[in-house]
Write a structure and sequence with these properties.
homodimer, DUF917 family protein (chains A, B), 12 helices, S-Me-THD_N_sf (chains A, B), S-Me-THD-like_C (chains A, B), S-Me-THD_N (chains A, B), eight-stranded antiparallel beta sheet
């Protein structure tokens, strides 16, 4: 699935990654269209960005994740400037007294997969082909670095007005509290660098080659059209995934609260699935899909909504009444299935009263009763 | 009133200042008892702290205000450690790349008058005999530095757990928003350095000799007891103040919201004032006193509640049902009576639908209808 051949981010790569990242984004991770627009503009102005693989890093290299934090509903309205994206980098370089060797996406899912491109292009810094989620999650501490006890500090943030913040948080939970409070004050979205890591820490804790994975997913969806293949079938093959439900959206409740987009959506089955009903729960990302009191897929496994005709992913923000979708699920990175992983991003953390059952077992008819 | 003779903060000086600062604190500024306890402990451990006057500063000296931010209700429960008080200083020295020459209280009113003593004693840094309010106010931008357009950044904050924050805010209003949000996350109170200033800026914008003033007020109240003088009369003479009302508290509504202690209290007249009713409105500080729809005293002029017997000041927090008090008022520093001053701390800012009328005019029977 990963051929690790992604060596630079050019227009073609950005087009593919934007779509692949929207699949991996499970509805969230920031609007992929905004990430794509920012990245395209950046490489048109500054040229393509070089991609480095984790295995090419020196152990002492400084790698800094750069992303947007906040509610996707707000990010759609406020496209960040170059200054807003480079300011957290400047603040962290000043604090650490050294230059950044590579910028990485904190999450490969959604727009945050491409958010680093603007700063990387302007500064001539390469982007790492890895992330710390292998998908998207809504809170700051929901990263593989947290599972391995890596310090999240220093953390730097900026808004579009010129406000900048540097924090030393005692752990990822405190980062989340303080950074979220600042984000709300900054108008609901902000740029942020957190978990600055060494090359050695990347090799130990990051999820490798996820930009390549997003690229390959996007390539599959675009090429299946040309090859007249069924894009959803091609995708499920590629990701070892499962079709969960075919239907149309009949009820969507979405609210922006506490710096998140939260809510649920209801789908009625169509065609062969007429009479069935699926409920989908989200906090920025799709986190739980159920049918008649049984789980179909549970966080941290991935849930995506795909357009029935094109196979193109649909975000939490852009889901509309009447949309005809296929819900698909696929297994998360094994790091999330550990006790600490499930404590951090399992269904109980998000307040869902249901146990985690791996999607392979749910698909095989084992477990899943709420 | 100011003899500028305060050269060091020893136990006697701290005892006087704590009481004088509670008068100038108009009910807020942090609990003076907590400030006193912290300061006493510090000088017992490290020895007295030297006091410098504004006129003794070099124009290029670095002067850093250090205070507690938050709701007094919370501060009563969480006495800060030495580490919590020195951490914002360390962060600001690191950011500015130089040592602090003097620490100053941001507000002379309440416990914040003495909060700098702990860090000053531990670090051997003198304290400045000046502040940026001449009283206490609830929000960060309510300082004379703000009136003169002085940059509030860098701002540094710390909590008791080890979390630290450095902010570059574009102005004092943005500082207030972000610092207040962080304070709430930090559990409702935090230590903070803001408006780092030069000696020249102190001379231009600070209110001089206010620690000396607090000392003199405390001295008056303590000595009047020994001299069998009426302490309240002595105080009104000293501060060119006015007795507003004699009565007892019959209703107190106090809530902690948005990082503040807000509410109002109602007093019924006693003795010669039987039949009269005074209402007192507060947001950390007493901001407006009214009787029968007429203002008795209006922010930014100072309002204090004094115990009828001892003349000792009573804070917003410690006001109890049935307390017999004399409400007094006295004029604020002229800087607050300018258009920019009134825009920043006048009654409209706090949401009171009443014009500002100087207390001298209200006492002379001019204006004051709500």
């Amino acid at each position: 699935m990963n051929n690790n051949k992604l060596t630079e981010l050019n227009e073609q790569a950005i087009k593919y990654i934007a779509v692949g990242a929207a699949v991996l984004g499970t509805g969230g991770g920031g609007d992929p269209h905004i990430g794509k627009l920012m990245a395209m503009e950046a490489i048109r102005k500054y040229g393509p960005v070089r991609v480095v693989r984790p295995e090419d890093l020196g152990d002492d290299d400084l790698v800094v994740p750069l992303s947007m934090i906040g509610a996707p509903t707000v990010m759609n309205e406020k496209i960040p400037s170059t200054e807003q994206m480079t300011k957290p980098l400047d603040l962290i370089e000043k604090e650490l007294g050294r230059k950044v060797n590579a910028i990485m996406p904190i999450e490969v899912g959604g727009g945050n997969s491409l958010v680093p491109v603007l700063a990387a292009a302007e500064r001539g810094i390469p982007i790492l082909d890895a992330d710390a989620m292998g998908r998207a999650f809504p809170e700051s501490q929901m990263v593989t670095f947290h599972l391995d006890g890596i310090d999240c500090s220093p953390i730097t943030m900026a808004d579009e007005r010129g406000n900048g913040v540097l924090m030393h948080a005692i752990d990822g939970i405190w980062e989340e509290r303080m950074a979220r409070a600042i984000t709300i004050q900054m108008g609901g979205s902000a740029s942020i660098c957190d978990y600055p890591v060494s090359g050695a820490q990347v090799k130990q804790s990051a999820i490798p080659h996820t930009l390549s994975l997003a690229y390959e997913i996007g390539k599959t969806l675009f090429e299946s059209k040309e090859l007249r293949q069924n894009p959803i079938e091609a995708l499920l093959m590629q990701l070892h995934g499962y079709a969960l439900f075919h239907g149309k959206a009949v009820d969507i409740r979405r609210r922006t609260e506490g710096g998140f987009t939260r809510g649920e959506a209801v789908f009625e089955g169509t065609d062969a699935q007429k009479g069935r009903t699926m409920r989908l729960f989200f906090q920025n990302e799709f986190l739980l899909a159920t049918e008649d009191g049984r789980s179909l897929a549970v966080t941290p496994d991935l849930i995506a909504l795909l357009d029935q005709d094109t196979g193109m992913p649909i975000t939490t923000e852009n889901l509309k009444y009447g949309a005809r979708v296929t819900a698909v699920g696929f297994p998360c990175d094994p790091k999330w299935r550990t006790p600490k992983g499930l404590e951090t991003v399992g269904p109980q953390y998000f307040g869902y009263d249901t146990p985690y059952v791996p999607i392979e077992e749910l698909a095989a008819g084992k477990g899943g009763d709420l």
